[in-house]
Amino acid sequence: MAQESSILITGGAGFIGSNVVEHLLANGYQNLTVIDDESLGRLKRVDRPGVTCVKGDILDEALMASLLAGADAVIHLAADTRVIDSIENPAYNFEVNVVGSFRLLSLARDAGCQRIINASTGGAILGDAPPPVSEELPARPLAPYGAAKLAVEGYCSAFAGAYGMKTLSLRFSNVYGPLSFHKGSVVAAFYKSLLNGRPLTVYGDGEQVRDFLYVGDLVAGVRRAIETDATGVLQLGSSVGTSINTLIALMAEATGRREIPVDYVPARQGETRITWCCIDRAREVLGFEPGTRLAEGLANTWNWFSENVTVFK
Ligand code: UDP
């Protein structure tokens, strides 16, 4: 995909989307369209020269058809992204994630837009699989969110098989970094607690393990994906497993706070206990190389949170 290509980014005003937009602009892309319902993100964050901002819902077929008519590629990030919310409201999660993505694929096909990069997930699709998880493992979602993402991967594969579209699902591990103030994911939640002088809440004993990927590394992988014709499924992560307790210790260093108060509360049902991933295939296919160490990424993220605290409070 050339830099003058027209790229539609759904959910592009959210945490990952706004980082993707910044990264693509910095790399010479100048024809980006962002659609976002602003349920969490804010379009003003990505309102720059070279970016057309559209407030709207991906379930709005007429709007999506008009946006896809001029698009060469789609980076599909719009989703109901929280595992825990999907457990509380599986029907809403299904509507946004499965129905919304299916419609997007159908409309893209009608519009002749062949290239779809679909944001997916490893941990929630694979459930409690023994790490390192890879694209080869059988799927066993433990929550509706993972089931929905699995279904969308299936449709992406089917639209490639049946209609020759170039669909690629990227399974993101736990992404953290700047521009995540509105997120409820663990790094953002912990930094907000620290800034508000509240203890951190840890669900369970803190020995659950995740693969934390710095958003700067992730967006480089997404750009590489746009620049190739790769199809199928690729896992993007750091390939390092880190427990929540270790994360807190690293945060103490990153923030210079020696004592971080923590409340341990019962574990949440439906969550995967231990997951981290193998990224060999993404390395090979995309040249994906996540170079940011967790300590460094946490320090960058803390700087951003500290500098922007008044803006978001
Ligand atoms: N977690 C936590 N406290 C929080 C937020 C998350 O202990 O305030 C834990 C959560 O139980 C999970 C891990 O951190 O084991 C990662 O949670 P997150 O919601 O960031 O991502 P996911 O569950 O989708 O991996």
What does this structure look like?
- 42% of the residues lie in helices and 18% in strands.
- It is built from eleven helices and 13 strands.
- The chain has a domain at 7-176 and 212-237: NAD(P)-binding Rossmann-like Domain (Rossmann fold), CATH 3.40.50.720.
- The strands form four sheets. The protein has a seven-stranded parallel sheet, with helices on both faces.
- The structure holds uridine-5'-diphosphate.
- Uridine-5'-diphosphate binds at residues 83, 123, 174, 185-186, 189, 201-203, 208, 210, 244, 268, 271.
- The site of uridine-5'-diphosphate has 14 residues, from helix 7 and strand 8.
Question: TL;DR?
Answer:
By secondary structure, this protein is α/β, with parallel strands linked by helices. Helix content is 42%, strand content 18%. The protein has a domain at 7-176 and 212-237: Rossmann fold, CATH 3.40.50.
